[in-house]
Amino acid sequence: MERGIPYIREDFFRGETFRDLDDLQARAVLWCRDLAGTRIHGTTRRAPRVVFETEEQPTLLPLAPEPFDPPTWASAPSTPITPSTSSAPSTPSRPSTSAPQSTSAATRAWSGSIATAS
User: Fold this and answer.
1) Which of 15, 19, 45, 49 could form a disulfide with 37 if both were Cys (CB 3.0 to 4.6 A apart)?
2) What is the pTM of this model?
3) CA distance 104 to 102
């Protein structure tokens, strides 16, 4: 549904008063099932509830047996982190580049042809 939020805001929330969150949720379920789900969609010309129950619901996978473990957010430490006094380097080192680089025979031949052409 392209305009889902405006549709819900105008057709479900507008002018309504809810006792509490439980009241809102119960009435939202009824509204979705009995009103919004049974209307004929303007583009598909089908009832969304029927499409869900016959085509989409059978393809849904079951929920994982364990609940999702949300990440824990924390603040950075308030004291500065001081460098270690160990002998290990504090940053990764790169391999030495002092070893000669080998060149292929094709590269040497190409380089030689340029040198002789000048």
Assistant:
1) 49
2) 0.46
3) 7
